Amino acid sequence: MTETSEEMIREIARAARRASRVVAKAPNSQRNQALVEIAVALRKSSAQIIAANQEDLEMAVAKNLSSAMIDRLTLSETRIQNITDAVCSIAKAPDLVGRIERRQVRPNGLRIARMRIPLGVIAMIYESRPNVTIDAAALCIKAGNAVILRGGSEAAASNRALGEAVSVGLLAAGLPAETAQVVPTTDRAAIDILLACEAEIDLVIPRGGEGLIRAVSEKSRIPVIKHYKGVCHVYVHAKADLEMALSIAENAKVHRPGVCNAAETILVDRGIAQEFVPRLVERFSSIGVEVRGDPETVVLHGAALLANEEDWGTEYLDRIVSLRVVDDLSSAIKHIEDYGSDHTEAIVTADEKVAEKFLHLVNSSTVVVNASTRFADGGELGLGAEIGISTTRLHAYGPMGAEGLTTTKFIVEGDGQIRQ
Amino acid sequence: MTETSEEMIREIARAARRASRVVAKAPNSQRNQALVEIAVALRKSSAQIIAANQEDLEMAVAKNLSSAMIDRLTLSETRIQNITDAVCSIAKAPDLVGRIERRQVRPNGLRIARMRIPLGVIAMIYESRPNVTIDAAALCIKAGNAVILRGGSEAAASNRALGEAVSVGLLAAGLPAETAQVVPTTDRAAIDILLACEAEIDLVIPRGGEGLIRAVSEKSRIPVIKHYKGVCHVYVHAKADLEMALSIAENAKVHRPGVCNAAETILVDRGIAQEFVPRLVERFSSIGVEVRGDPETVVLHGAALLANEEDWGTEYLDRIVSLRVVDDLSSAIKHIEDYGSDHTEAIVTADEKVAEKFLHLVNSSTVVVNASTRFADGGELGLGAEIGISTTRLHAYGPMGAEGLTTTKFIVEGDGQIRQ
Lengths: 420, 420
Known about the structure:
By secondary structure, chain A is of the alpha/beta class. Chain A contains 14 helices and 16 strands. A seven-stranded parallel β-sheet of chain A has the order 10-9-11-8-7-12-13, sandwiched between helices. In chain A, strands 5-4-3-6 form a four-stranded parallel β-sheet, with helices on both faces.
């Protein structure tokens, strides 16, 4: 990277810091107005966005990218409509900045509360899907932050076109265009420079494959919110409704096998293994899911292949599932602690006490009773939209929406009180 | 440091991780019982603790430590009584682990909530005051965490004796002694080893001088919650009650000049400068506080020395105050943004609209209207006790109590819901 381009990246970070001071002080109405203007600009420029996306798609075909990747990359009129709808719903969501929480009056008459405020400057580093550019920009603006958007090279033209619409919208609402900046180079070195801008950037959120996320967190001097992978479990307890268990296991595995909240391992209680394992293996086989089981499973149904130690920690992101018979609730929890990723675990049981124990003793970021792991998602959990998922416990744990992009300050109101 | 002692430090970290799993799963009643047993053990062993403290004090005298440092180091029967009272009040405080928050029912019938859980393993790295050993241990245990305590060399014997009482209390309640471990060496290299134990330690909290805190945050591979310094401001607005302003400025500066929430700079609105600056300079002079002012201040009262640029960013921790005349609310806020440390700022004003603006536009971690900056303290703000203060916005901002040592997981309860 040339010295000029290095300086350009640093200037992006400094401009973000300056813009963050303006956007933080703006009233909520102005930030919401900016979101509406962004939606308008996206619609007006949809032809240009689709043309830019076409460039990216031609490159993707030339580079022989997989059809799944090409699908994620593609923008159509319908997809742009969905993206603008999401922006509008973020505009309409309850305001965060300036919200007063946890009021109390102290014995000395001081009135104490917390007021929600923005974090400052967020850097998003992500791959392929261009809709992240808009979702992230919209959530950061809603929360009063500035954002630096550094998407993947395969979506470079699309991201530039989307970023253009965001600038137009911000300016139309009287906010600085630098509130949301798309980094105009996909040179990898740009990421390293951003990750060293400690004075200008408050938080880095990487989204993409485990490789990208590890590289970002190893290099960053700035706090990183992340999850490496989702090795999610469904534990079918001895007192489970077996039809419900089949339906949840199937949905958790195959509804979208390529995402982080898909199940990778089904744990079956020994008490029902003889009856349930064969039914489960048959169900999976009938829908084209490869089952890799422990020896007990393989004995119970010949269609299961023998799993090895590595399988228990693998995020397949594919139509493959591992299957293990466990003694009881404690062994299930032990397996989850040994091999899980703190993402999402579900139990299927009709026993309320067992469900309660599972909820208390499993400390993954989302814990589910009698429902699919696929609900571990900001939208499904009522956060409105999601900027990422954290599997580390500092600041945010689990799906993270606009509120995760804020913090609170203490406010104290008195009548002249001094400390004695 | 020898290989054996390096391995010993790593084993402390691993033992803390193992203990953290046990203490996290224990019921709240058992953790509270441990706190009570610790209070009992402290009382029973007060003679040994005071004898150990005597060793430290003799060393301190031999090393010619300042009388202020010796005072901070000293433990007496009364101080031990205060420490045990604090532990008992933490035991009686509302429980955190397992607390359910923000319940909601989704349109598909899923019942969503958040459940509070411990962070895991905390490492405290601190200087001189031995009461931190007990305060930190008690807050970490209350929140269901394990803690590694690494105090300063000047309190080594006292900290060992206090740690002994903590172990006795934990064991008496059936919890592992490794839930709270005092590092048995004051070799500086031990800190570096702890700061590299990423897999075993979740959070580092340094407390002490700016030098210690900078050294810890530069070296740590683990997230650090910290504040470097407190350059706190009192802004006396044109519509202030001047008697109240004098009383607050004095209290903020001299109630305890050596602590981080003491005021360092008083900003005076030009509208009242002619009347108020001479009164303020006289008040400070009469109580032995050196005033360093901008040229306008010096013209208004000859007792003020001329401040230089460096003064505005200095945390004096002493009976020195800087004083500046500002044009209006905006210039006051601009000064705070340019020179402040995001710790605590106060305004004195009778104008509610101005107070409201100050509360919204100043994003320091504690913002105060018509009261002393000295209230920026966990106890005074109703947190029960304080483990530290954060001036960075991730995870915690401002004074941090036991709740700051926890996070929340999402819990989801359904009746067989799958994702469509």
